[in-house]
Amino acid sequence: MLGTGPRAAARQAAVLFVVAGLLALVGILNDPLHTGRLLVVAACDLSLALIGLLVPWRRFGRYGPAVLGLAGFGVLGLSTWSFGGVAAGTGPFLVLLYAWAALHFPRWILALFAIPATLAYLVPLILTGQPPLVLGSAGVLMPIALAVAFLIEAQARGLRDERDRLSRIEQWRAAMINTLAHDVRAPLSTVHLVLEDLQETATGPYVKMIAAALRQTARIARLADGLLDLHRIDSTGHLKLDRAPHAAHLLVKDALSYVREDADVRTDVDENLIVHVDKQRFEQILMNLISNALRYGREPVIVRFTRDATGDRLEVRDHGTGIPDHLRPRLFGQFAVGGEQGVGLGLWIVRQLAAAHGGQAAAEAREPGVAMVVTFPPPPGTPSDQQ
């Protein structure tokens, strides 16, 4: 029912006609002398509602449901006549019908509606012999209805234009992400093959250097895949995970192999802790948090991985100046705190990956510094998971 397009417009009109039909039936209680006329009005309103719901309006183009408005004005005229020329109820409904039209149709249709709307209002008053003062009320009602309709139409048009602009931006962003991710893989594969060939004949300190380069190229390749996955999260809300049990200390150890050797990163992880996560996604989470701590905070950076009754808790703490209270709630938003050293996507990626695991990400104040905390649900089969 909500939204735009011919189908939504027709369904919204159907709701209006249902309300009008029910009001006509209620009106019988107040005016039993005109029961037959009011039953006809109710039948017309409910018939229009069925037409609005059942007809495949998309076949008739964007402005097809406008005919429902024309029919609605006719029923309004019949309703005014049925009530003996009393327009106290039909006048406001005429404005409401105009407001509905303004949400879905351009100004030229609203202007064309002025003629049938005016006739629907005046003709029943004339037929029932209303005095000139009552007939003159059309000179007040119709300009007000048009003014309200034009204001609503302008606002709706502005919102549609903004939605179209955002849609174009999203299409451009999606194309950029796909291009970037795919274009990174091709040259990276060549670099990886060259490094593997060099590794076979390398000696001395070059063996270690090439091994480090191979690890980093493999990580960049995984990041490119992750970028595509994150685009899918943003567009569909779903990410397929390859979750399996892993020793937590080994996961942390593998991830830290990508950190520069001179970085002061310390760990506090129980060697007996087994966690149920996607290894690649967990590595992305941890590396983003450590990189963020090294870039914006101060060493040492402490990595803790613990378990309590609620699940597993990964904490990466730095010893910097901390983050103001008003910034912490929005740290994990897209482009939230980008600057000269980054674009503000790292923590957003962390939040998306945590959510894909069924967990959460948050920032907690420390003295000194700040702790980025990611929680994971307990592994299947644990007592806390079974509760």
3D architecture notes:
- The chain is of the alpha+beta class and 387 residues long.
- The protein has 2 domains: 6-136, no CATH class; 243-386, Histidine kinase-like ATPase, C-terminal domain (Heat Shock Protein 90, 2-Layer Sandwich), CATH 3.30.565.
- Helix content is 62%, strand content 11%.
- The protein has helices at 6-30, 35-54, 66-82, 90-104, 107-127, 132-135, 138-201, 205-236, 248-256, 279-296, 346-356, 383-386; strands spanning 243-247, 265-269, 274-278, 301-308, 311-317, 360-365, 370-376.
- It has a 5-stranded mixed β-sheet. The protein has a two-stranded antiparallel ribbon with strand order 1-3.
- Mean pLDDT is 83; it is low at 338-343.
- This is histidine kinase.
Strand order, sheet with most strands: 2-4-5-7-6
Low-confidence stretches: 338-343
Count of alpha and pi helical runs = 12
The residue fraction in helices comes out at 55-70%
CATH class of the largest domain: Alpha Beta
Q: Mean pLDDT score, rounded?
A: 83
Quick one: CATH superfamily of the largest domain?
Histidine kinase-like ATPase, C-terminal domain
Q: Distance between the terminal alpha carbons, to the nearest Å?
A: 40 Å
Q: Which geometry do the CA atoms define?
A: elongated
What is the correct CATH architecture of the largest domain?
A: 2-Layer Sandwich
**What is the chain-wise order of helices and strands?**
HHHHHHHHEHEEHEEHEEH
Taken as a percent bin, the fraction of beta residues is 5-15%
Give the C-alpha Rg. 33 Å
CATH topology of the largest domain: Heat Shock Protein 90
Secondary-structure class: alpha+beta
- Major β-sheet, in short? 5 strands, mixed
**DSSP summary, beta strand count:** 7
Total domains, how many? 2
